[in-house]
Automatic annotation (TrEMBL):
CDD domains: CAS_like (cd00250). Residues 121-358 form the TauD/TfdA-like domain. This is TauD/TfdA family dioxygenase. Belongs to the gamma-BBH/TMLD family. GO terms for molecular function: dioxygenase activity. It holds the Pfam family TauD. The lineage of its organism: Bacteria, Pseudomonadati, Pseudomonadota, Alphaproteobacteria, Hyphomicrobiales. Keywords: Dioxygenase, Iron, Metal-binding, Oxidoreductase. Signal peptide: none annotated. InterPro entries: AlphaKG_dependent_hydroxylases, GBBH-like_N_sf, TauD-like_sf, TauD/TfdA-like. Its cofactor is L-ascorbate; Fe(2+). Gene3D superfamilies: 3.30.2020.30, Clavaminate synthase-like.
């Protein structure tokens, strides 16, 4: 049963479908009209600004017909059709999220239990098959990381991986960087030391949102890669002590990198970042790049350090980590705003050569959305 009624002298209407009611304001409906005079048929972009819509726009008539809601507006005397499915997908008349730390339902947290089902796909299958690529990118978006196997063992093969979904983000390290032992390294990542799980480059604003690490040689003992779900760690911290979660999300940490001539990178961001409505959107954790924290009030600093220490302990907990060894031609991709990565120490004998680069999620999510639009029957 579908019904529609107009209320408040035309300021809003109520659409009832299957017993569920959804209210929409007249100004919102007019602003989101999809007719050819309001939006470009070619690209969907708006052709008018809000200033072009009368602030006293009202609904004078509304009815449901053939899967659409027909709405007539005054003072324009204009009738616009809205797809019912689109209206339900974009309904804003729902309970608001009030609990800090809520997650987008498209994201799934994980712990070491994911070791038995690491999201992975074959490079050639992803390159040649749109449905395989769609599934692989959907897993990457859901879990925040994924592997590729069976790739070419050749210099700069990682660029072919980025080409699958987006564009390289160049930094002071160049379009890519080498990860192998160096004499007098500019960064601890270029030694055989083990590294605590961390997000990369927290000293940048904006931070690179995707990282690719591609293996070309792997005969040295050790050096296994580990990943930790920063969202799962943050929510575990919150479950143990909400005040710890509060201080790490309320106050900014500071990060800095000045490891090479002519480069001084600094940022000021919280370790746990929330959107204004409380959604958990990012985690930054990198002890090597942490600068002096001076944005926390004296009265909260002791609590802040308790929370900082405990978050590190949770991240270090083997129960939180997924571990795998990369072989030549394999790589993994991480959402650098969510998933921390680490490396176990490796020996000085044999060889270990990885290449890395950065990209951004806008390209990845755009590619995924386009594939889901082209393959709606397979969309999650």
């Amino acid at each position: 049963m579908t019904d529609v009624s107009i209320s408040d002298a035309g300021k809003h209407l109520t659409l009832t479908i299957g017993g569920n009611s959804h209210r929409f304001h007249a100004i919102w409906l007019r602003d989101n009209a999809a007719d050819a005079e309001t939006r470009s048929p070619g690209n969907g972009q708006r052709l008018i600004a809000l200033r072009d819509i009368d602030p006293y726009t009202r609904i004078t008539k509304a009815k449901v017909s053939s899967g659409s809601l027909l709405v007539k507006f005054s003072p324009e005397d204009k009738t616009v059709a809205y797809d019912l499915g689109w209206l339900l997908d974009n309904s804003y008349d729902r309970p608001s999220m009030t609990e800090p730390g809520w997650l987008d339902p498209g994201k799934e947290t994980w712990t070491a239990q994911l070791n038995d089902q690491v999201p992975s796909a074959d490079f050639e299958a992803v390159r040649r098959g749109a449905s395989v690529k769609r599934g692989w990118l959907a897993s990457l978006a859901r879990y925040g990381f994924a592997k590729l196997t069976g790739g070419p063992v050749e210099n700069l093969a990682l660029m072919q991986v980025v080409d699958l979904f987006g564009y390289v983000r160049e930094t002071n390290y160049g379009r890519h960087f080498e990860v192998r032992t160096e004499v007098n390294p500019t960064n601890l990542a270029f030694t055989g030391l083990g590294l605590q799980a961390h997000t990369d480059n927290p000293y940048r604003d904006p931070v690179p949102t995707v990282q690719v690490l591609y293996c070309l040689e792997s005969s040295a003992a050790g050096g296994e890669n580990m990943v930790v779900d920063g969202f799962a760690a943050a929510l575990r911290l919150k479950g143990e002590n909400p005040d710890w979660f509060r201080v790490l999300s309320r106050y900014c940490a500071r990060f800095e990198y000045a490891g090479e001539k002519g480069v001084v990178l600094r940022s000021r961001k919280p370790m746990i970042e929330l959107a204004p409505d409380g959604e958990l959107i990012a985690v930054r954790f990198n002890n090597r790049s942490a600068a002096a924290i001076n944005d926390v009030p004296f009265e909260e600093m002791e609590l802040y350090y308790q929370a900082y220490r405990r978050l590190g302990e949770i991240i270090d907990d083997p129960a939180m980590e997924v571990t795998f060894r990369l072989e030549p031609g394999e790589c993994f991709i991480v959402d650098n705003t969510r998933v921390l990565h680490a490396r176990k120490a490796y020996s000085g004998t044999g060889t270990r050569w990885l290449q890395g680069c950065y990209a951004d999620k806008d390209g990845l999510l755009s590619t995924l959305a386009a594939l889901q639009a082209d393959l709606p029957e397979a969309a999650e």
